[in-house]
Design goal:
The complex is a heterodimer of chains A (259) and B (409). Chain A is an alpha+beta fold and 259 residues long. Chain A has a single domain, classed as Alpha-Beta Plaits, CATH 3.30.70. Chain A has helices at residues 24-32, 112-116, 158-170, 186-190, 207-211, 237-243; strands spanning 10-15, 52-57, 67-72, 122-124, 151-153, 196-200, 217-218, 230-233. In chain A, the strands form 3 sheets. In chain A, strands 6-1-8-7 form a 4-stranded mixed β-sheet. A two-stranded antiparallel sheet of chain A has the order 2-3. A two-stranded antiparallel sheet of chain A has the order 4-5. Chain B has helices at 15-42, 57-68, 71-81, 88-112, 121-124, 131-155, 164-175, 177-200, 218-246, 253-288, 304-323, 325-328, 331-358, 374-397, 404-407; strands at residues 212-213, 216-217. Chain B is built from 15 helices and 2 strands. In chain B, strands 1-2 form a two-stranded antiparallel sheet. Chain B is mainly alpha-helical. Classes of the chains: A alpha+beta (259), B mainly alpha (409). Chains A and B meet through strand 2, helix 2 and strand 4 of A and helix 6 and helix 10 of B. The complex binds iron/sulfur cluster (2 copies). One iron/sulfur cluster binds at residues 85-86, 88, 90-91, 107-113, 151 of chain A.
Chain lengths: 259, 409
C-alpha cells in the first residue's frame, strides 16, 4: 500500500544521542493533553502515556555497555495500520499535514486499532478520568477529556496547530505555510536537551527537512512499511540497527523489500 | 407434569430431575450474569485485559465458537443446496448449535467493546474498508437467518403445532428453507473469511499479516476452510455428548460418520493450504520485514510447540483420521479425531489473537503476559451455560432428532 501524501507533512526528528531519558516530554504531554493520573497506576500496561520513553541497551557487558533512550509518540504513519481497521471511522488520516486523528465521541472502544499498531502508541481509557482536587483548575482549556471506554493517542498536540494557524491568520500570514517553530508540540518545546526537532518534513525551510535526510536518520520498524512521520537519529550504529529490528541488510532505513 | 409438551411419542426424564439439572446450569449462568453486569457498570477495567492485550480470551472465544458453529451453514448448504438428504437427521441440531454460538458471540462482543451503548455505530457509521465492519454486518444478518431457521423448529412443538396458523407458518418456512440456507451460506462464508481477514490485514503484526488475492489476505480463505473443517464434527460431538447425558440414541452413526467425512475432507484441504501458507510466511514474508521465525515464539507459553500442536497434532493427525474410512467408522476414533480437530482450530484462533499481539516488535520492547481473569472466564462460562440451557429446553420440548423414536425402540 502507498503512503498517504499531503503538501505538508508534520514530523519529528528525535536525536537519540541527545535524549537523556529525563521524561520531561512525557510529563509535558500529560499536562498538555489533560491526562488524569490513575488512582492505581501500578499496572504500567494500563496507564496512559501518549509519549513514552523506552530504554534501549546494546546488551554488552561492561565496559562496552551502552544505553540509549527512545521517546515514542504516535508516528502519524503515512500508511497507518490503525486507520483502515477501525470499523466506525473513529480514526483517520485525512487532514493536510498528515496527523492521524482520533475522534473520541465516535470511538466504540473495540481496540482493534490497538491490536494493529506495532508501536503501542494507542491507549485505552480503562476508567473515567478523575483529577485530584485542585488539579482541575490547572487543566488545559483547549483539550477535551476522554470518557471511559474509548481509545486515545498522541495527535502532535493538534490544538497547538490550530492556535498557530489562527495566530498567523491574525497577523495576515498564510496558515498553510507556517514558519519553522510556529507550531510545536509540548514535548518538543519542553525537551531540555533539544532532542526533539519538529516541523514540516517537506518544507526545506524547516530544520527537520534536512535532519530527516541525514545518514544517521532512521525510522522505527521501517520494513513493516507503515511509513512513520517520526524519524530518529543517532551516530551510534547499534542504536540505528536496533531501531529497524536488526534489518537484514544492516543498513539503517534501507528500502523495504516488502510492499 | 410437562409430559404434554414432549415431542410426539418420546420419553424424557422426570420434571424434578430436569429442574435440578436446569438449576445447576443456571447457577453458572447467574454467576456469569453477575460478572457481565459488573462489566457494564464498571467497564472492562474489571477484566485482565490491558493496553498490550486489547484482545484476549473473549475475542479468542468469539472466534472459536463462530468457527465451531460453522456446522450450521455448511450442513445447511449441503442439505438444501447440494441435496445430501441423509443430513436431515442432524440438520436441526446444527441450527441450534449455530444459533447458540452466534448469539453468544454477539453478546460477548457487546461486553468486549469499551462503549457498549455505542455498539450501533458499527451499522450507522461503517468504515467500508474495515474487515470488522464486514464481520459486524454479516454476523448480525446471519444471526437473523439462524433465528429464521430455528423458528419453524419451535413452532413444531407439539402443542404449538396444533394451532393451524403456526402449523402452516412452520410448513411454509420449511418449504423456503433452501433460500435461507443459501443466504446463510453466503453470509457465513464472508464473515468467517473476514474474521481471518481481520488478522491478515494487520501490516503491523507480522505473525498475522498475509498477502493475498485482491482485497482478501490468505487468512480470509484459511479461516473459511478451517471453520467448515471443524463445524460439522463439532455438531457430532455435541450430539454424542447429549447422547451420553440422556442415555438415548439420537442420531445414527452413519450420519455422524458422514459429518466426519465432510469435516475431514475440508480439514485436509485446509491443512494442506495452511502448511503451504506457514511455509511461505516463515521463508518469504518474515525475512522480508527483517524478522525471523524464532522471534515469533518465546519460552513455554509462547513456544513453538503451540504452532506444531495446532498444525500437526491437531491438524494433520485428525485430518488423516477423518478421511480414512476404517478409522472414521470407529466411534471412539471418530470422536477423538473430532476433539483434536476442534482443539486445533481453537488453538489457531488463539494464536492469531494473543500470540500475534504478544510478540514485541520494537526490538527494545519485551514479551508481556496475559492471563484472563475471573470476570472473563465467568462471562465466557455464562455463554456456555446459556448454550446448555437452550439445548436442554430444545431437546426436552422440540422434535430435534427425527430418528430418535426409531433408534430407541
Ligand atoms: S503509530 Fe500506531 S497509532 Fe500512530 S499512526 Fe502509526 S499505526 Fe496508527
Ligand atoms: S477502538 Fe475506537 S478508534 Fe480503535 S478501532 Fe475501535 S472504534 Fe476505531
Amino acid at each position: 500500500m502507498k503512503a498517504k501524501e499531503f503538501n505538508i507533512k508534520w514530523g519529528m526528528v528525535i536525536d537519540l544521542d541527545k535524549c537523556t531519558g529525563c521524561g520531561a516530554c512525557m510529563t509535558a504531554c500529560q499536562v498538555e493533553n489533560n491526562i488524569a493520573p490513575m488512582v492505581d497506576s501500578s499496572n504500567k500496561l494500563r496507564t496512559l502515556s501518549w509519549m513514552l520513553v523506552f530504554e534501549m541497551s546494546n546488551k554488552k557487558p561492561c565496559p562496552d555497555a551502552e544505553i540509549a533512550y527512545l521517546p515514542r509518540p504516535c508516528m502519524q504513519c503515512g500508511n497507518p495500520a490503525c486507520v483502515p481497521v477501525c470499523p466506525v471511522v473513529a480514526t483517520d488520516k485525512n487532514e493536510e499535514g498528515g496527523i492521524v486523528s482520533q475522534i473520541y465521541p465516535r470511538c466504540i472502544g473495540c481496540r482493534y486499532c490497538m491490536a494493529a499498531c506495532p508501536y503501542h502508541a494507542r491507549y485505552f481509557n480503562w476508567e473515567d478520568p478523575i483529577f485530584p482536587k485542585g488539579m482541575e483548575k490547572a487543566l488545559s482549556p483547549s483539550t477535551s477529556t476522554r470518557p471511559r471506554g474509548v481509545v486515545e493517542k498522541c495527535n502532535f498536540c493538534h490544538t497547538r496547530l490550530q492556535n498557530a494557524k489562527d495566530k498567523v491568520r491574525m497577523e495576515g500570514g498564510n496558515p498553510e505555510a507556517l514558519p519553522d517553530g510556529a507550531y510545536m508540540p509540548a514535548c518538543s518545546e519542553v525537551c531540555p536537551t533539544g532532542a526533539i526537532t519538529f516541523g514540516d518534513l517537506k518544507n526545506p525551510e524547516h530544520k527537520v527537512h534536512e535532519l530527516a535526510k541525514s545518514e544517521n536518520a532512521f525510522r522505527l520498524l521501517e520494513k513493516l512499511g507503515l511509513a512513520p512521520q517520526v524519524y530518529y537519529m543517532s551516530k551510534r550504529e547499534w542504536v540505528r540497527k536496533l531501531g529497524d529490528n536488526y534489518a537484514a541488510t544492516g543498513k539503517p532505513g534501507a528500502e523495504k523489500k516488502h510492499s | 407434569m410437562d409430559r404434554a409438551l414432549f415431542p410426539e411419542g418420546l420419553e424424557r426424564c422426570s420434571f424434578g430431575k430436569f429442574a435440578l439439572w436446569m438449576g445447576f446450569i443456571t447457577a453458572f449462568f447467574l454467576f456469569g450474569l453477575y460478572a457481565m453486569l459488573l462489566i457494564f457498570a464498571k467497564g472492562i477495567v474489571v477484566t485482565g485485559l490491558d493496553n498490550y492485550f486489547g484482545f484476549g480470551l473473549w475475542i479468542t472465544f468469539d472466534l472459536a465458537v463462530i468457527a465451531l458453529g460453522a456446522g450450521a451453514f455448511f450442513t445447511g448448504f449441503l442439505k438444501y443446496i447440494l441435496k445430501i438428504d441423509q443430513l436431515k437427521n442432524i440438520i436441526n441440531l446444527t441450527v441450534i448449535v449455530g444459533f447458540i454460538c452466534y448469539s453468544g458471540a454477539m453478546l460477548v462482543l457487546t461486553m468486549d467493546i469499551g462503549q457498549p451503548i455505542r455498539a450501533w455505530f458499527g451499522y450507522w457509521h461503517p468504515n467500508v474498508h474495515s474487515m470488522l465492519t464486514e464481520v459486524i454486518f454479516c454476523i448480525t444478518c446471519y444471526c437473523l437467518v439462524l433465528v429464521i431457521e430455528f423458528v419453524p423448529l419451535v413452532l413444531e412443538q407439539k402443542q404449538l403445532n396444533k394451532i393451524p396458523f403456526l402449523h402452516h407458518l412452520a410448513h411454509n418456512m420449511h418449504v423456503n428453507m433452501a433460500l435461507f440456507a443459501g443466504i446463510g451460506a453466503f453470509l457465513s462464508t464472508f464473515h468467517q473469511g473476514s474474521l481471518g481477514g481481520m488478522y491478515g490485514v494487520l501490516i503491523g503484526r507480522p505473525y498475522a499479516f498475509r498477502e493475498g488475492f485482491f482485497i482478501w489476505p490468505w487468512t480470509f480463505f484459511l479461516f473459511v476452510l478451517s471453520a467448515v473443517g471443524c463445524g460439522p464434527i463439532f455438531t457430532v460431538l455435541c450430539c454424542t455428548f447429549m447422547e451420553k447425558l440422556t442415555g438415548r440414541k439420537l442420531v445414527d452413526f452413519k450420519t455422524k460418520a458422514l459429518m466426519g467425512k465432510i469435516a475431514g475432507t475440508m480439514l485436509t484441504v485446509y491443512i494442506f493450504f495452511k502448511i503451504l501458507d506457514t511455509w511461505a510466511w516463515a521463508n518469504n514474508y518474515l525475512p522480508s520485514v527483517g524478522m525471523t521465525f524464532d522471534q515469533m515464539f518465546y519460552g513455554v507459553i509462547y513456544g513453538k510447540w503451540l504452532m506444531f500442536t495446532e498444525i500437526i497434532l491437531c491438524g494433520v493427525v485428525p485430518a488423516i483420521m477423518l478421511i480414512t474410512p476404517s478409522i472414521r467408522n470407529n466411534p471412539t476414533l471418530l470422536y477423538t479425531a473430532g476433539i483434536l480437530d476442534c482443539i486445533g482450530i481453537t488453538l489457531n484462533r488463539y494464536l492469531f489473537t494473543v500470540q500475534a499481539i504478544a510478540i514485541p516488535l520494537m526490538p527494545f520492547d519485551n514479551w508481556q503476559f496475559y492471563a484472563p481473569n475471573w470476570a472473563e472466564w465467568a462471562t465466557s462460562g455464562m455463554i456456555v451455560a446459556y448454550g446448555f440451557l437452550v439445548m436442554s429446553l430444545s431437546y426436552r420440548y422440540l422434535p430435534v432428532f427425527p430418528q430418535e423414536k426409531m433408534l430407541n425402540k
